[in-house]
Design goal:
Radius of gyration: 23 Å
Distance between the termini: 73 Å
Order of helices and strands: EEHHHHHEHEEHEEHE
Shape: elongated
Number of domains: 2
Helix content: 25-40%
Largest sheet: 3 strands, antiparallel
Number of strands: 8
Strand order of the largest sheet: 3-5-4
Length: about 250
């Protein structure tokens, strides 16, 4: 149950059901029960006009309910897991799911990081064949754990965040120095509090806003963790010394 619309290995609509805090909310998201969830998917379907749609579900009833909620035509073909996976593969998948809480979904690592915050775990590259005599291709997937069954922690040293922020400060004309940095992980993402020294003459409001946006983008790109909140406090002003005229 993922609650996403995926096209060519890219998430184009929906919100992950795995991110829900309870199993009931997970089911509702996966079935597109809420109007806002449903509307987003329907708009995407009208925009991209796919010739065929593969609905992933855990039962016939679930698949039919999804199709009904999204206003899709009658299902023309049903493929069961036993038709495409061996008994050993299914046992292994079940064991991993029950003991480690891991799930495999067909979305690239780059896309997953935006939707699953710090819950990105392992990127996989699987070789597949398009048929006899044709070149194999690589299908990338990502293993994730849903919020409500997450075991263990995905942690990144605070020093990593500090280095990223300090690097961004060096590239900023208005930030002189990072005085203090605190990073808290709240499950859905990180919250960052920092105190900075600003350069005299710097437009504080616009400058700090742009700085926060750049920091958020860079941290998301480099650490795969969502930034829930960034607070930047200007603590003092740095006045550059003018070079004495000869």
């Amino acid at each position: 149950m993922i609650g996403l619309l995926i096209k060519d290995n890219e998430v184009i609509a929906g919100h992950s059901a795995k991110k829900a805090s309870t199993k009931i909310q997970t089911v509702k998201k996966a079935l597109f029960f809420e109007d806002d969830e449903k509307t987003q998917i329907v708009k995407a379907l009208k925009k991209y006009r796919p010739q065929s749609i593969l609905i992933l579900g855990t039962s016939d009833g679930m698949v039919q309910k999804i199709a009904s909620n999204l206003g899709l035509p009658e299902i023309s073909e049903t493929i069961y897991i036993k038709d495409v996976a061996t008994e050993q593969e299914m046992k292994t998948a079940k064991r991993i799911r029950m003991t480690e809480g891991k799930h495999v979904i067909p979305v690239p690592t780059f896309e997953i990081k935006k939707d699953f915050s710090g819950y990105l775990l392992d990127p996989l590259q699987i070789f597949k064949s398009k048929g006899k005599g044709k070149q194999p291709y690589i299908s990338e997937k990502s293993i994730i754990r849903p919020t409500f069954s997450y075991m263990g922690n995905f942690t990144i040293s605070d020093n990593v965040f500090r280095q990223i922020v300090e690097y961004m400060a060096v590239k900023s004309n208005g930030i002189h120095k990072i005085l203090k940095l605190r990073v808290d992980n709240y499950g859905e993402g990180v919250k960052i509090y920092m105190e900075v020294s600003i350069v005299y003459g710097f437009n504080i409001v616009d400058g700090l806003k742009k700085f926060k946006e750049k920091v958020e983008k860079e941290i998301s790109k480099l650490t795969t963790m969502n930034v829930e909140q960034i607070d930047v406090v200007a603590k003092n002003i740095f006045v550059p010394q003018k070079k004495e005229e000869e």
